[in-house]
Amino acid sequence: MACSWIKVEDFVETSYWISIQNNTTGTRVPDSPEVELTEVAQQGLTLRLPRNACSNGHQLVLTLRKRVRSPLEDGEEEIEEEIQMTAKVVQAEDLDENTRSVEVRFYQYNELLWREFLRQFSGRQERVNALVKAIVE
Predict the structure, then answer these.
(1) Taking the model in full, what pTM does it have?
(2) What are the chain's domains?
(3) Residues 9-16: contacts with CB within 8 Å, 24+ apart?
């Protein structure tokens, strides 16, 4: 008999990758540990990027990839989704000698896909918060 308190969906692994093309300079921002999504907003993102990746006013093409791996009894299932957004850098502020915080606003993107991403992202965060609260109490 299977335990009812253990659910397969509790073991689902969700990973996100972001790739960035700076259309203003014609360069791709290389993948590195310095590339990090730090904040999600209704029509934009805040990123931590290498210091020379972009400046205020630059146009970026962001591709956000989501991979979901679900362990099933008969193997693993993988689902990949991708959202592409064109955005403008509205604020870039140096954090240290190597990185900067970059705020971008989307002006060309699929609003339905983005809203679904926001819904999933906030739902995931709410589940984490509930787990932390249960552990603390």
Answers:
(1) 0.75
(2) 8-109 (2.40.10)
(3) 9/70, 11/70, 11/71, 12/68, 12/69, 12/70, 12/71, 13/68, 13/69, 13/70, 14/66, 14/67, 14/68, 14/69, 14/124, 15/66, 15/67, 15/69, 16/64, 16/65, 16/66, 16/67
